[in-house]
Amino acid sequence: MSKPIRIALVGATGLIGTSLIRYGVGRSDLFRIIGISRREASLPAGARMELLVADPMGWPDAIAAANADVLVCALGTTWKKAGKDQAAFRAVDHDLVLACGKAAKAAGIRQMIVISSVGADAGGKNFYLRVKGETEQALGKLGLTRLDILRPGLLRGPRNAVRPAERLGVIASPLADLLMHGTYRKYRSIKADTIAQAIIGLTREKAAGRFVFEHDAILRAARKA
Fold first, then answer.
1. What is the residue extent of each domain of the chain?
2. Contact 24, 47 (CB under 8 A)
3. Of 1.25.40.180, 3.40.30.10, 3.40.50.720, 1.10.287.3510, which CATH number belongs to 5-222?
4. Phi first, then psi: what are they for 7, rounded to 5°?
């Protein structure tokens, strides 16, 4: 049996990070997760993983210490958490994500999987989507052997805090999804657990390059998990 894939997970306390950790319970023979976080976090029963706690300034050292095969970056803040300040939002969703990518490159990690957003566009007018697009572009210039960019629509799953508009979107998403066909399918909502499965499916890919996955491609990747 081949040795388990070692996954360094940044953003371990968020929706996708916790979904990935739950998905790893009982699968330590296939992959091992090394979480990297700025604070302690409760782990699900049966989770066999390490959690490295450090200030973000120390994350490059933590990423190197993880001795990982793959870096998964599920970082992201919200406009409200950033105090509705563009610089504070960019500091997380661009600067910190890029710093993690640079650390992965320096540590010799072959593959990085990053969670972006549907509609990401470096030339767009929407600030949120423009930052996401600029981050994708910057990561693509790092020279990582393989870069996988996931662009999900509205994420469904248990959250510690849900904004009213987001709650309404989740409630309406089953009906809204049925109305999205053709080029609009990429905007369909998706479960965080499906994203976690897609991440595991992508860790098995060997081809080098930069790859972008929107809704249907994420579902296909999840089926490989």
1. 5-222
2. yes
3. 3.40.50.720
4. -115, 120
Per-residue model confidence as pLDDT tens digits over 123-160: 999 999 999 999 999 999 999 999 999 999 999 988 65
Q: What is the C-alpha separation between 16 and 25, in angstroms, rounded?
A: 15
pLDDT tens figures, 179-193: 778 899 999 999 999
pTM over 0.90: yes
- What does the DSSP assignment read for 116-159? --TT--TT-SSHHHHHHHHHHHHHHTS--SEEEEE--SSEES--
Q: Please state, in angstroms and rounded to a whole number, the distance separating the CA atoms of residues 139 and 132.
A: 11
In one-letter notation, the amino acid at residue 100 is C
